[in-house]
């Protein structure tokens, strides 16, 4: 019987070749899309989950209460780790850390005259006991216990020494004007791709406090550290948060901050806060693509259902004969489900071929290293997708075809039911609803990204290069800037600690006359050199910027409009504030500019003059002389730092990098929307072909009676046009609601225009008409004499 059913399946595939190939292509494309999304989603869900102490590993954040709202962020006082370890019994381990991105690749490591750039950071003694980064050499317990220890990754060890046998060997590290000797105490494997950490070496945190910051800056009002803790197994997180909440306030009574812990591995997917509550993050993209995968697969299954039921009339005699000979409904259902599962298995083979071909490009788009490894999870997922697709695609045709009575079939009295027609039409409408929503979403996301890329941020980021301050440049900053401004093509240059494109250091250590003692305002703070505001094209609202024409600029301060508004100051120029115990005079107010992501409103910011600690130089260069100017700058940089390479960045590129997630989602959505509309059109193509075939004699008679081609096209496409119009009417309000919710995640956003939605509706209708017309025109070209011959 099994052999017989396989033979029947084979014959039916041959008999209905066009339907077979449309279903095969639709299902394989849908399954390939689903497999790619599965690989991506699985990778996203695995980020930071590999640590052995994942269940007990938490990061400390702080709630900042400002103007009745709560802002949550991870920087905390470096003193907090020791206090938590001592005062909270549930905290088994607490580690201070710095963000690798704070220093970027500004670090250099050297052995003699051999020098390389590397990404480094400073971490507490127990860092490698808390995080699971396997050691090739050395061990996690004591690798950072001495101030002069350094732990290297395998790649950086080989790059420096040519081997991993480096324990006990010495090297020199340098960042800005700070440098020191270190002895290699451990070598770890290169960090896995699904780790949010991205360092290449680690130095003890004590070096950061003692040598870079200075012990006097390590106080409760300075949020300079990241802190990670291991909680006791089974610890109640809510109780832990209640215990640590008053720690800072008990030491700084006027503070408005409150620390709390959050699962470390959740920050990648759930890193967004709104008014003190977790409000999602990248998990929204994971959910989005899971929904897309489901709908793309559903569209492919709908094609199978529609084409199978549409072709039912061609197989009714087969069903009638089988039932007459004793076949029961269960056997017929199994036969048709077997047919659909067989087709799905064939589609799976083709889908895997598609995935293998597309995976390199998919990795390039997503910036991942996905691969098809036949592990149990992938095999189970593939089997589940195949079985689900096969049963879903074949369920309706199987139960539909098996319900007919043999007498009605063999007498030819079987009529198409109204329910069958409406079901088929409803499924076509559903396909196009999903396709139209995807098309609208792609367009709105594209326009928002375009808006983000072109928005006037309040400063000039075009043709501004960012140069790291390192080596001799750090010790001779004034001299370097003077010579840099003399380079042909350099319009202006200055230095700062701020990246300008994203939030950095912040402080609550500012007081002023009339300040509410219960209020503790968090200010974004940037150390600035002469001419920074002019170099970046930031507009002054009133007052002046820092200038060499004035003396004692260390005693001066500049705020943005948002800060002055929060402070409640009128006529602020000339007024005095106190910052970290030092009095400073307000000399200027800059107009608000976006120094952070457009997801956030502009917050209070201050600039203070401090040339003793600078991270980056910004230089504005002429567009017409970019290449020549860069060559001159490289030469100048080499004169100051003979053993360094100049790794400059364009400020605009740094700004665009903030929106990589949105850009990738936008690009992937375009591909998936295209796939959805193609699969939908494949089904429409098949149904149009079947309709044209079924009404071929009618077409012949109408042509003989004088009907024109346009009239026949209008007649045969009317039903399909109604279905697409219904889909448009339903899809456009839904897509408006969906995209409005997505845009609410941006503080600065587009207002979707009506023509975004109308345009997509028209495009969907034109695509449908084009698909239908191809088949109808093909039918019109057949000679009526052929179609009207007696059978």
Automatic annotation (TrEMBL):
Main location: membrane
GO molecular function, one term: transmembrane transporter activity
UniProt entry keywords in alphabetical sequence: Cell membrane, Membrane, Transmembrane, Transmembrane helix
Domain ABC3 transporter permease C-terminal: 290-405, 672-784
Annotated localization: Cell membrane
InterPro entries, per the entry: ABC3_permease_C (IPR003838), MacB_PCD (IPR025857), Macrolide_Exporter_MacB (IPR050250)
Cross-referenced PROSITE patterns: PROKAR_LIPOPROTEIN
Cellular component, GO, one term: plasma membrane
TM regions (residue ranges): 20-41, 285-307, 337-359, 379-401, 422-446, 671-692, 723-742, 754-772
Stretches assigned to the MacB-like periplasmic core domain: 21-245
Coiled coil: none
Membrane topology according to the record: Multi-pass membrane protein
Protein name as catalogued: ABC transporter permease
Organism, as annotated: Marivirga atlantica
